[in-house]
Amino acid sequence: MDHSGMGNMAPDQGYSTHMTFFWGKNSEILFKGWPGTRGGMYALALIVVFLLPVLVEWLNFCRVVRPRWGHTVTGLAQTAMYAIRVGLAYLLMLAVMSFNVGVLIAAILGHALGFLLFGSSVFQRRKLQPAEGTKGDLPPMSCAC
User: Fold this and answer.
1) Left (φ > 0), alpha (ψ -120 to 50) or beta: where does 9 sit?
2) How many domains are there within the chain?
3) pLDDT confidence of 92, banded at 50, 70, 90?
4) What is the Cα–Cα distance from 106 to 53, expressed in whole angstroms?
5) What are phi and psi of 47, to 5 degrees?
6) Distance between CA 68 and CA 134 in Å, rounded?
7) What would you report as the CA-atom Rg of the chain, rounded to the nearest whole angstrom?
8) What is the Cα–Cα distance from 34 to 45, expressed in whole angstroms?
9) pLDDT at 129 over 90
10) CA dihedral in degrees (95, 11, 5, 1; nearest 10)?
11) In a domain, 78, yes or no
12) For residue 83, what are the domain limits?
């Protein structure tokens, strides 16, 4: 057991908790033992991390709520979508906190693709454009920077 307070794992397990960015496939992302050291699991982990921000960006710009819904149903739908978006964003943040550079790059590329597909003007259809000032059912994610 490590008593340094850094949370390092036993050396015989093959990986440790990093406190600086590193390259390598021997990393734990989100869950203990995942992706592990088996072949292809790191690539699968990067794909999952890539898809998380694409989904977050879709939730940022999607239009699911219909005008004919009542205020209560609209509010409940927006609340559920908001909770899912925040939960996915926190999972993504925790994945990036593995300090693995591959995970960071996958997250950035996922956000970029998601914004390209759902937020940029490249794939927007003019006739389906929402009213001025609103892009989706949810308010934009904010950063207290």
Assistant:
1) beta
2) 1
3) very high
4) 9
5) -65, -45
6) 18
7) 19
8) 8
9) no
10) 120
11) yes
12) 36-123
Mean pLDDT, to the nearest integer, of 15-34?
Answer: 76
Which residue in this structure is represented by tokens 């592990």?
A: 36
Distance CA 25, CA 6 (A): 21
Tokens in use for 97? Answer: 């906190």
Dist. CA 130–CA 86, nearest whole Å? 23
19, 99 Cβ separation under 8 angstroms: yes
Domain assignment present for residue 42? The answer is yes
Say how far apart CA 56 and CA 96 lie, in whole Å.
15
pTM of this prediction? 0.73
Q: Within its chain, how far is the Cα of 31 from the centroid?
A: 15
My answer on whether omega of the bond before 35 falls inside 30° of 0, hence cis, is yes
Tokens of 116: 């390209």
DSSP 123: S
Residue 105 lies in a domain: yes
Identify the three-state secondary structure at position 68: coil
